[in-house]
């Protein structure tokens, strides 16, 4: 099970609350600059918003309509940076926008795509072009033309885990299933009270980073007993997963009468993922679920575009999350800024600083972390400069492509199927050899739980990726849960329950 440092005399430079993409991104950046870092997450890594995204690294074409030029420029540039950092979990993808003249004129879309092609640095990704649909198109016959452009797909929860691993490898202490009970300033330090299954303990830090995502404002008010500098708007985004709607590896970006857009994205070879929605959410972020209204909305948008008509009976799985956006008092949930706001507070010069993260998006997490370090630089003048733009994430080192790696895997594990080798390569990159070792057949990988999941992989996940439950493995470290039978889950649960703690040092 998860280990945690107990109360001791060590004083960290930084204590980070929250194990979503922003928290782990800041922890990794700070650790690489030579700061001592502690991060705690109350659940598993990427348990909430960071694993409920549309799984894209993208500039945000529709944000141009809301004049979010700075955000789009930064996000567009980040696509290429992240593609180089994590070529195993991030891959280029072409997007097709069917033209529906009554929603947006062709000249407006072409103008937007011109900006999209040229606002950010683009070296690897192809530019945009017009497309014309023939009879074999999966789209309804009335849709005859459209536009095509590039963005990237990503395994969102693995992006979080890899950043946490990177932080740990740079010296950070990362603990999951550890709740922050309270924190208070004592002179130049923050004293942070924490609790996990081993009991309560305490740490001290020179600065506190609040990256609690949907709970960012609540954490300030309830746990710190302070006033939040900004309000937060929780915007629910939901997705449905259905059998593959069409052949090919391109995604579709569908316009709707409400001026919103919905994606249809190839998912795990067998499925199509359709989403996302945008609706105000007032409940507990931990309990968010797709609504019947959202299901009907997504099916209606899909059916307005594709020949292959969906009903609710086609839905295999759903997921929903809330985006914690900084409240800009917009009336339209779709128009609320996706940009991030960093709030630094310090009541007097000799008090320990608090940095709170409001908003943000998956694509710009690395730049957000750099901005956070810039804000904290005055408190840590000895820290090193920025470094994350050029260093690969774990598994991305010395890797040409996932396809080439999959071929190398099959050359060693001669009875591994093509799909299994592809999953290994795209999940672990070059770290797959830490799992496979000298094995030459799947038989040598230990107990088979089903769907190509073997004991060696489970052991690795427990040791290096903070796994404690089958849910961690089946829904966040992978998406094998879509195909796992109840009996297979039970077998995995038994194995995990009887497994001794082998987690590497926090």
UniProtKB/TrEMBL annotation:
Q: Name one Pfam family in it.
A: DAO
Q: Which GO terms describe its molecular function?
A: glycerol-3-phosphate dehydrogenase (quinone) activity
| Entry keyword set | FAD, Flavoprotein, Oxidoreductase
Q: Which residues form the Alpha-glycerophosphate oxidase C-terminal domain?
A: 387-482
Q: Which biological process terms from the Gene Ontology are attached to this UniProt entry?
A: glycerol-3-phosphate catabolic process
Superkingdom per UniProt: Bacteria
Q: Which cofactor does it need?
A: FAD
What InterPro entries does the record tag this protein with? Answer: DAO_C, DAO_C_sf, FAD-dep_OxRdtase, FAD/NAD-bd_sf, G3P_DH_FAD-dep
Q: Which GO cellular component terms are attached? A: glycerol-3-phosphate dehydrogenase (FAD) complex
What range(s) does the FAD dependent oxidoreductase domain occupy? 13-329
- In the Enzyme Commission scheme, what number(s) does this protein have? 1.1.5.3
> Which reaction(s) does its UniProt entry say it catalyses?
a quinone + sn-glycerol 3-phosphate = dihydroxyacetone phosphate + a quinol
**Class in the EC hierarchy, top level:** oxidoreductase
User: Would I find Oxidoreductase among this entry's keywords?
Assistant: yes
The UniProt entry's sequence similarity note says: Belongs to the FAD-dependent glycerol-3-phosphate dehydrogenase family.
What is this protein called in UniProt?
Glycerol-3-phosphate dehydrogenase
Per the UniProt entry, what species is this protein from, by scientific name?
Acinetobacter genomosp. 15BJ
